[in-house]
Design brief:
Helix content: over 70%
CATH superfamily of the largest domain: Tetracycline Repressor, domain 2
Number of helices: 11
Strand content: under 5%
Number of strands: 0
Structural class: mainly alpha
Largest sheet: none
CATH architecture of the largest domain: Orthogonal Bundle
Radius of gyration: 22 Å
């Protein structure tokens, strides 16, 4: 019995071991976004991020090799993904659903402060340009799905300029919320959806 107990003790993880915990990682993500929104990416301090999360700086460097790597993984984990848009039966209904879902994402106060800074950093840094491009692709994926459905229904032609269409779908809402800093009402979003739908049909 004593020998068995001794074996179990040997198998225990030492109390001082650095074991990454999911809850600490999430706390670091949240602290990073708060720091980014408050200071701007160029002024992000990893020491302050660690302090916000109640951790030591070593907790960051055990997980990420650089501030850019930290930003990329944080955005991937907790960033700007939108849920898949279900088939609402028509192009305009799908566009309306897309814009309402995007409005939810863009209403978050951290998102509204981080996105403009991310675009500015992308103009200066190839690493941040790559991150900006990945975020844009995530936002465009649901739009690509609704265009495919519209083509299958016969509402749009297969020859549609998809890249231009994907630029058009979020443009008025993104401009209003991120560039101008205003939040449109549900009635205004519905009106935007009608205008975007008309534009998509005009592209055809």
């Amino acid at each position: 019995m004593e020998r068995k107990c001794s074996d179990q003790k040997k198998k225990r993880t030492p109390s001082g071991a650095a074991v990454p915990r999911a809850e600490l990682t999430d706390a670091l993500y949240q602290a990073f976004f708060a720091e980014w929104a408050e200071k701007g990416f160029a002024a992000v301090s990893l020491e302050r991020v660690a302090a916000r999360a109640g951790a030591g700086k070593a907790a960051i460097y055990r997980r990420w090799s650089s501030r850019s790597a930290f930003a990329a993984e944080a955005v991937e984990a907790l960033g700007l993904r939108m849920a898949v848009i279900e088939d609402r039966g028509s192009l305009e209904a799908d566009v309306t659903d897309f814009l309402f879902r995007l409005r939810v994402v863009l209403r978050h106060p951290l998102v509204r402060r981080i996105l403009p800074d991310l675009h500015a950093e992308a103009a200066r840094s190839p690493e941040m340009r790559g991150l900006n491009t990945r975020i844009a692709s995530q936002r465009r994926a649901p739009g690509a799905g609704l265009l495919e459905r519209a083509v299958a229904r016969g509402e749009l032609p297969a020859s549609l300029d998809t890249k231009l269409a994907l630029d058009l779908i979020p443009a008025p809402l993104y401009w209003r919320m991120v560039v101008l800093g205003a939040t449109p009402s549900r009635a205004e979003v519905t009106k935007m959806a009608s205008a975007v739908t008309a534009g998509l049909r005009a592209l055809a």
